[in-house]
Amino acid sequence: MTQELHGMRVAILATDGVERVELDLPRGALQGAGAKTEIISLRPGEIQARQFDLNGAGTFPVDRLVTDASVGDYHALLLPGGTMNPDQLRMDRDAVRFVKDFMASGKPVASICHGPWTLVEADAVRGRRLTSWPSIRTDLRNAGAEVVTDQEVVVDGQLITSRGPADLPAFCAAIVEQFARAHHPMPG
Fold it and tell me: 61 — phi, psi (to 5°)?
């Protein structure tokens, strides 16, 4: 186990309907590299995970509410997918503000599958290169993004994106690498 992310705090913004594997695998890669992760959500308690959007896949405990979270508390942000998860997040003013503030901070933001929907709502994709699940690519283009369809991972400055679960090995490696480049430990 490496410790290249030791002392790093990563916010994972998610709610009910999150695709389990898109939260579990990146979180495991980040924790394996020494990062501390926190699930930030809309309501206290637990969020319901899904598998392939259709099947229940257990729950995740919520560490903090988005209304109580500050960009200054974290070094990086992870936006997992699942169709229902970002669709709910993009309708929540506080979640959109958190994402918008994170993008404005210049800190790294990683998003996979349907996760970029929240970036669209935060007006954070204009002029950026990224990829996503095929069904939201028109939304990304309409919001001013340059969409890449033939790469597992696209890195554009602070933004790291992938298409879906099949890209998770490459996505996990890329987020650890990119987050490590931007890492400056916080006390505590």
Answer: -75, 140
Q: How far apart are CA 97 and CA 75, in angstroms?
A: 17
**C-alpha to C-alpha distance for 3 and 28, rounded to whole angstroms:** 13
Name every residue whose Cβ is closer than 8 Å to that of residue 89 and which is 6 or more positions away in sequence.
13, 14, 15, 42, 79, 95, 96, 99, 117, 118, 121
C-alpha span between 82 and 127 (Å, rounded): 25
Please determine, for residue 184, whether its predicted confidence score (pLDDT) is greater than 80: no
Structure-token pair, residue 117: 């929907």
Three-state DSSP class for residue 175: helix
Catalytic sites, residue numbers: 113-114
Q: What is the pLDDT of residues 54-92, one digit of tens each?
A: 999 999 999 999 999 999 999 999 999 999 999 999 999
Q: Residue 187: is its pLDDT beyond 60?
A: no
Whether the per-residue pLDDT at 133 is higher than 60: the answer is: yes
Residue with tokens 């699942």: 82
Residues 6+ apart with CB under 8 A from 169: none
**Contact between residue 20 and residue 57 where contact means Cβ atoms under 8 Å apart:** yes
Say whether pLDDT at 164 is over 90: yes
